[in-house]
Amino acid sequence: MNDRDWEILKILYEKKNITQAAKELHISQPALTFRLQQLEDEFSITIAYRGRRGVAFTVQGEHLVGYAKDMLLQLRKTKDFLWNMEGSVKGVLRLGVAGTFACYILPAILRRFNILYPNIEFNVTTGWSAEMVNLLFKQEAHIGIIRGDYNWPDQKLLLMEEPLLIVSKKKIQLDELPYMPRIEYKTDTSLKEAIDNWWFATYSQAPLTTMHVDKLETCKEFVLNGLGYAIFPGVTLKNNNDIFTMKLRSKDNVPIMRRTWLIYRKESLEISIIKIFIDFLKNYNYK
Q1: pTM of the model
Q2: Where are the beta strands (DSSP E) in the chain?
Q3: Arithmetic mean of pLDDT, 199-213
């Protein structure tokens, strides 16, 4: 087995599907199936059963996947350590970034950082914040950038915060909100809880939700076309002056804020490129 075999086993176990795994690995399905058969012959075991509904790993196969994941992790750590020993600022930074931050803030950060350190490459995974925390736990990312308050037992630093906003094409009053059409979008648990907690602390009835959409950007376009109101984090509305916004406030008139956190392991600061990027994030102007 080699590092390519470890990657094949890991991806196939995650996807549970030959077609999807082959696409992720950028190889043909026959090539993937052939290599899997070769590994089974090498170890004299059945690694996985292939059927119409996907791939089911045997107990022996799952054990081999565990070995593959361990070896991939050790290989990444070894590469990090060796590049660090060279003393030059180069290598691959693996980031796990919440989707909203990745869309609205991260591109400018990486562009500016790349000007200063052109020999550092990025491997960026985006998704819900809870998924990014899990990446850090599994050591599949060096650094996490998450939105909302999640438990993380190691290093955690507040990067930025912005208000939650009621957004509408036309001016509205708070007492009108329960009777107006609301557009909802898929978001992570922490944001949904923050919005729901504010709503039910403010009103005695449920919102009049008339539409559910899958993406925040779709929701924003519907709002811009006057189809209803929505509640967005402030960062998603930069440089958009042709709509009405109102800050969510608590009963004590305190704005309700959405926080973005940097999370990482203290031991990772021993790797120079990680420390350099963390220091860059600490001093970055997020306004």
Answers
A1: 0.74
A2: 48-51, 54-57, 91-98, 120-127, 143-147, 155-168, 181-185, 208-213, 230-233, 244-247, 257-264
A3: 95
